[in-house]
Structure to design on (725 residues):
């Protein structure tokens, strides 16, 4: 009797598994590999989950439900590669969203290219990613090759050419500082008056800042992650660097923690990003209000880029006629995303892709915006200092 | 069956040949997708590191928390040899083992004077120093990492996909385990255990404590170096300093503790279970670290000898019952 029970329950279990597999086979599958470590990271994940839930409650995409698989890559390349492999071969997703960190997205590219899965990047800015030439990669944020030009040009022409650089050994921070140094040298023949790479998770930057101060710069570039940027800004006033010395930060400065935690020290900081919360367009105002009420934070450009990505992806998926042949469906999704032209959302400029797997085609947003903090603290405010739209081949 | 067991006991190498053929057949019988091969390769790499860690920590009783730094040395030796010389795994693997062995000497020196938490701190510092040195050195690719490290070729086959690479990582893992078994079952292994239990008594019995501590560190470093090199060439061939942090070290330690410190199979069992559990809990990312922390705490509280301890207890009990049954008759 016991044996019959075991056999029967095994059969029921297998049948239910089979049924759910058959039911899921008809669904559209989206995979996400993302850095979900901090509070804001979790909130980005929640934004994706909430948006997909909303799509499903509205009847899905052309009547098909969407299955979302969300993995944390902890901003580690090993985990990112494992996630990409799992999403591509085991979860058999149609499209991958991710990752936040350039050092994770870069090794994911060969994996997704071999598997033939389209991948859309929400945050990684390193120009190296699209230079791999993969036909399956699409970038929503502004590439570092555009950031360096807009920041370099603005700094040299509006703020001064005697520049001191302090950066931390994180890829995005380092790329920003080094590319800007190179740009200033190539375009204006200017060498840094002082440059230093601080240690990882450094908390006291005062010795570097004192040396930078001694070099008497017009501009001080403080390129770090959120905590380091906040500390560098606050400590720059502690060591007596006057307000007249312009403070420049990388796009990390767009994150809400920077003006909130740096307080008054954030005032006057200039950075380039893809979205400003002070944007007066109705779409931006509505978005800022929604994020504030739902997630309790003022959105920086990471939030807006994720929202833009999802808003672009939905119509792209709607245009695909899913056949059930995974490889063909993935290629159809890729072609549909590649067909996006002049998408106007929250980002600073229209986002366009095209068919070739070149950086010209796959760096979607070519319009960085220069932003300046006019008030720090909890009720921080920004002002747009300028916007430039680049040609697709600029900065290559 | 008893005869078979006797043959394996006499010629343990045969057991590994059988294991090799079984593991060769597993992908074609059980694997349904490429990810399983990728995961298997990660398990094999973790087994190599854990087996090495078990030598120095489980057998020789030296508290090391910097092993991940040695793993990084192996990876970056392979990565740099590829980047600057275009060398393949067949060259980078032995060189990485040798170079990491030399680093093992540096890690062993503090163990002559330090013990317990002091040695743990010294090795932790060593491991972190290596990672920071790599991260800040342009020669090592700095925070850009090293990408597109080539996959090995053999008989005209390029092992450039996870399913093919399985056949590279698996034999290397088997060789590493065989080597670890041979060492631990020899007089050297027994000397390690003597040093672990009481260094003074060991010295009084004629064991050169310093020499054996040094040997344990070198051997375990060589394992970490081999694992590092195999990891560097794992498709897509990308290494980054972020993958060699204290968190990875804790994971390696969890493998050895969970599997059973000082148990010959300990590191292997722990590596298999922890890697699979980690993978299964991937979607539960909010609770993943909590689950891991809880697992380590519960293991130490209720299962201080790990799963290996349970296995030992089972066999000892069985042998005891058998002997008792014979005596009762």
């Amino acid at each position: 009797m016991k044996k019959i029970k075991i056999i029967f329950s095994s059969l029921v279990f297998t049948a239910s598994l089979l049924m759910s597999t058959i039911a899921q086979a008809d669904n559209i599958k989206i995979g996400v590999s993302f850095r979900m470590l901090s509070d804001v990271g979790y909130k980005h994940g929640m934004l994706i989950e909430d948006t997909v839930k909303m799509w499903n409650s509205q009847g899905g995409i052309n009547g098909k439900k969407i299955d979302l698989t969300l993995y944390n890559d902890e901003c580690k390349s090993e985990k990112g590669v494992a996630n990409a492999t799992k999403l591509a071969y085991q979860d058999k997703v149609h499209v991958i969203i991710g990752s936040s960190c350039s050092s994770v997205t870069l090794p994911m590219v060969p994996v997704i290219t071999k598997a033939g899965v389209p991948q859309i990047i929400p945050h990684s800015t390193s120009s190296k990613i699209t230079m791999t030439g993969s036909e399956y990669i699409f970038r929503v944020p502004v590439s570092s090759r555009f950031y360096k030009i807009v920041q370099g040009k603005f700094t040299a022409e509006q703020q001064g050419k005697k520049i001191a650089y302090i950066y931390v050994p994180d890829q995005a921070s380092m790329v920003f500082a080094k590319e800007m140094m190179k740009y200033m040298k190539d375009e204006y023949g200017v060498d840094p008056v002082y440059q230093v790479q601080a240690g990882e998770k450094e908390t006291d930057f005062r010795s570097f800042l004192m040396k930078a101060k001694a070099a008497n710069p017009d501009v001080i570039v403080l390129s770090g992650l959120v905590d380091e940027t906040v500390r560098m800004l606050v400590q720059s006033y502690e060591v007596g660097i006057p307000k007249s010395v312009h403070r420049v930060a990388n796009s990390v400065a767009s994150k809400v923690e920077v003006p909130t935690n740096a307080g008054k020290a954030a005032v006057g900081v200039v950075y380039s990003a893809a979205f400003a919360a002070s944007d007066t367009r109705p779409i931006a105002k509505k978005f800022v209000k929604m994020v504030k009420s739902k997630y309790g934070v003022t959105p920086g450009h990471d939030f807006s880029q994720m929202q833009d990505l999802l808003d672009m992806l939905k119509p792209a998926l709607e245009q695909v006629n899913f056949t059930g042949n995974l490889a063909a469906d993935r290629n159809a999704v890729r072609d549909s995303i590649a067909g996006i032209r002049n998408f106007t959302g929250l980002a600073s400029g229209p986002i366009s892709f095209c068919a070739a797997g070149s950086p010209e085609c796959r760096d979607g947003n070519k319009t960085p915006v220069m932003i300046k903090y006019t008030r720090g603290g909890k009720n921080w405010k920004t002002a747009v200092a300028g916007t430039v739209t680049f040609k697709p081949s600029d900065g290559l | 069956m008893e005869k078979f067991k006797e043959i394996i006991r006499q010629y343990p190498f045969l057991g590994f040949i059988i294991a090799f053929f079984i593991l060769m057949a597993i992908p074609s019988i059980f694997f349904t997708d490429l990810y399983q091969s990728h995961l298997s390769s990660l398990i094999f790499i973790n087994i190599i590191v854990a087996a090495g860690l078990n030598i120095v920590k489980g057998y020789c009783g030296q508290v090391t928390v910097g092993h991940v730094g040695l793993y990084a040395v192996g990876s970056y030796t392979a990565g740099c040899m590829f980047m600057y010389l275009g060398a393949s795994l067949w060259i980078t693997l032995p060189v990485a083992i040798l170079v990491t062995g030399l680093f093992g000497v540096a890690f062993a020196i503090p163990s002559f004077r330090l013990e317990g938490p002091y040695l743990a701190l010294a090795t932790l510092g060593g491991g972190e120093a290596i990672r920071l040195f790599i991260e800040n050195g342009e020669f090592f690719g700095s925070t850009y990492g090293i990408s597109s490290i080539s996959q090995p070729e053999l008989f005209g086959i390029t092992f450039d996909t996870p399913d093919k690479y399985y056949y590279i990582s698996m034999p290397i893992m088997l060789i590493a385990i065989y080597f670890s078994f041979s060492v631990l079952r020899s007089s050297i292994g027994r000397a390690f255990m003597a040093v672990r239990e009481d260094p003074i008594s060991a010295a009084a019995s004629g064991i050169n404590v310093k020499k054996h501590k040094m040997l344990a560190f070198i051997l375990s470093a060589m394992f970490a170096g081999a694992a590092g090199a195999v990891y560097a060439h794992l498709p897509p061939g990308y290494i980054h300093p972020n993958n060699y942090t204290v968190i990875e070290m804790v994971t390696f330690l969890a493998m050895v503790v969970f599997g059973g410190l000082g148990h010959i199979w300990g590191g292997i069992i722990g590596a298999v279970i922890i890697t699979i559990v980690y993978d299964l809990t991937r979607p539960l990312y909010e609770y993943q670290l909590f689950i891991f922390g809880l697992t380590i705490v519960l293991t130490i509280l209720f299962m201080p000898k790990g799963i290996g301890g349970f296995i030992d207890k089972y066999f000892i009990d069985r042998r005891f019952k058998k002997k008792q049954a014979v005596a009762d008759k």
In short: Chain B touches chain A at residues 33-36, 38-39, 42, 132, 135-136, 142-145, 147-148, 161-162, 235-236, 238-240, 242-243, 279, 282-283, 285-286, 288 (CB under 8 Å). Residues 266 and 309 of chain B are 8 Å apart (CA to CA). Residues 35-328 of chain B form a domain with the ABC transporter involved in vitamin B12 uptake, BtuC fold (CATH 1.10.3470).
